[in-house]
Amino acid sequence: MTPRQMEPLFEEEARQWLEDLHWDYRPSLALIRRFLDTRSLAGRAALEDGRAAGYGFYVLEENKALLGGLFVSRPFFGSALGEELLRSILTGLQQQPNIERIETQLMPFGHALDAALAEHKFRLYTRQFMLLPLAQARPSPAGGAAPRPRLERWNDRSFEPCARLIQAAYAEHVDGEINEQYRTTQGAIKFLRNIVVLPGCGQFLGDASFLAFDPQRGTLAGAVLTSAVSSGVGHTTQLCVLPECQSQGLGRQLLEASIAALSARRFEALSLTVTSANSRAVQLYERMGFQTKRTFAAAVWEGQR
Asked: Taking the complete model, does pTM exceed 0.70, yes or no?
């Protein structure tokens, strides 16, 4: 396939992301076009009378595959086309002897493809896409006398300490099962570079991203990272706190700092995704005014486990 053949489908996909999820998907599509143009994008496309009706792509990282996207044209959304594309891709990947793990989160489809993923022996974890109109943000209640952590804005010296924070925060956590990169410092650095340096999740906003330091020890205790995903809409790409510092209001303090910075730049809304099993985080976001707009599955396959 060539970018020209795929262009009408890409335009439709961009419209759907913006209408349904308030997300400008065009920078991601620009990367996809570039890889298509150099014939270096792996995946499948479905044709109807010679026109592209759907596609899915994946990337390989050593022994892991990441199914990065799947889309079908709206006339085919309620048909079996999405499942056929997904099955074709997954069957090919699972037959490769070097592939030990496959991860995917197909947010635009909601739960429509869960049955096909379960058929291929994936473990499914329900996640929520939540949105907060910033004008409706609920301020935190009056605080106590406990010392508040010092907040600093993100800087490029923060990659390694923030990676160690992510590894510690997600040890024995359901999100560490979903995203293998959280399990090691090097994996977390790759994750951070994808959202800070590359357009993996919108345009990174350093002035709306904060690090929290323990007031007594001066060590990194929490972080919130924020990107712009469309005009006036931000997205929390990461919010984590050390286990021993949780339940002390630090997560809320970080998120409120990000909201204040976005409001100062005249942003109108903030979105995030959260795993439903992480009930404390879900409850925090709901108290702050976030509302769930869509649920979807994060899916993981690990060989013959």
From this structure: yes
